[in-house]
Write a structure and sequence with these properties.
Elements: H1 6-21, E1 25-28, E2 43-46, E3 55-57, E4 62-66, H2 71-80, E5 83-84, H3 98-104, H4 111-114, E6 121-127, E7 133-137, H5 147-152, E8 162-169, E9 171-172, E10 176-183, H6 186-197, E11 203-209, E12 212-219, H7 221-231, E13 234-236, H8 238-249, H9 254-264, E14 268-273, E15 286-290, E16 295-300, H10 304-313, E17 317-323, H11 326-329, H12 337-350
Parallel strand pairs: 1-2
Antiparallel strand pairs: 3-4, 4-8, 5-9, 6-7, 6-8, 10-12, 10-13, 11-12, 11-15, 14-16, 14-17, 15-16
């Protein structure tokens, strides 16, 4: 990476000045994910000027792009070559950037079959809290050097440093897709998804809500057609299906609109990550289930400790996205002692002066 680029040098200088002054910085691109995690704090470090895609090899299925690159711009570039980000990252706004995608680590409906953002990161370049440029991983799929360090940055919400560039594995767009609808209660839907999960079926996304299970088939045309006949159900028109999956990814559908309205009063919106095979959770509220049972959204008025205890009993954890109790309950499940020590050690290693996004993951670091 050329350090004489004005946009890059401006970021380096800003971090150096903040470190010298002991000034905390709030890393932000488009700000579309400010709601996620704890409240942003610190002086703005705007990444949007450092944008562009310096390397893209469609035949190698690898793209290297910069933190300030609009996510829509990257997806449009890939689409020109019949390729995509298979984990379907949500935008949550027109200003979403690649840096925000990596920092939040959020994936869309296909995550259960295609993998997460973290699974597709091959390498990255980081500006740490000492003002040093560090590179991890590589730009080829077989390169495993530094893989774990690269992936640490995914979902860290900028607390470990500023991700300047990231190399991602991309995939071709599917040749065919089809969406089917089934009238099933929650337990029956989970059982059906578990049954299908043990079969060679091209089911790449699923969602259950209010007595309806919606599944998306994706892949070769012959495989999709065969699976549609085998599964049965009611076909959903392509245009309606596309709108449904996009609304689910961007949290614009009725469930999430109602959830946000509830959160403005006395409700909370939770995201519970549990094993796909976990039975229905005995919690009061309204569920929407994705990722073949692995991601369960819940709108409820229950206290945070009860929701988190239920998630833990099921072998998972719960994240609070919206609700007035977020400030006191915390966005993320509190860390156990050993995990907290690891997190603090990582923070000190990459950002010893604590200038990047303080408190964004957990209060105190």
């Amino acid at each position: 990476m050329e350090t004489n680029e004005p946009a890059l040098q401006a970021l380096i200088d800003r971090v150096a000045a903040a470190r010298a002054d002991g000034e905390p910085l709030c890393i932000r691109g488009g700000g579309s994910k400010d709601f996620y995690g704890e409240a942003p704090r610190g002086a703005l470090l705007d990444t949007r000027a450092f944008r562009g895609t310096p390397s893209y090899e469609p035949t190698e299925l690898v793209v290297t792009t910069r933190c300030g690159t609009p996510l829509a711009e990257l997806e449009a570039l890939l689409a020109e070559h019949g390729q995509r980000l298979p984990f379907e990252p949500p935008h949550f706004g027109a200003g979403a950037t690649v840096g925000g995608m990596v920092g939040a680590g959020l994936s869309g409906p296909a995550r259960a079959s295609a993998g997460s953002v973290r699974d597709h990161v091959l390498g990255l370049t980081l500006l740490n809290g000492r003002g040093e440029l560090l590179s991890f991983g590589g730009t080829v799929i077989k390169n495993v050097a530094g893989y774990d360090v690269s992936r640490l940055m995914v979902g860290a919400l900028g607390t470990l440093g500023l991700v300047l560039e990231v190399s991602l594995k991309v995939l071709p767009m599917p040749r065919a897709t089809a969406t089917r609808r089934f009238e099933l209660d929650q337990a029956s839907a989970l059982a059906r998804l578990a049954e299908w999960g043990g079969q060679p079926l091209p089911v790449d996304a699923s969602a259950w809500w209010d007595g309806n299970l919606i599944v998306r088939l994706s892949g070769a045309e012959a495989a999709v057609k065969s699976a549609a006949v085998r599964l049965g159900g009611e076909p959903v028109a392509d245009a309606s299906a596309a709108g449904f999956w996009e609304g689910l990814r961007e949290q614009r559908d009725d469930y999430f609109v109602r959830a946000r309205h509830a959160a403005e009063r006395d409700g909370t919106l939770w995201r519970l990550a549990v094993p796909q095979t976990a039975p229905p959770l005995e919690l009061e509220g309204e569920f929407l289930i994705e990722w073949h049972g692995g991601q369960r959204w819940l709108v409820t008025t229950l206290p945070a400790d009860k929701v988190r205890a239920a998630a833990a009993r099921a072998g998972g954890h719960a994240t609070l996205l919206h609700g007035k109790v977020k400030a006191e309950a915390g966005a993320f499940t509190p860390l156990a002692g050993p995990l907290e020590r690891i997190h603090r050690a990582l923070k000190h290693s990459f950002d010893p002066d604590g200038i990047f996004n303080p408190g964004r993951l957990y209060p105190g670091f």
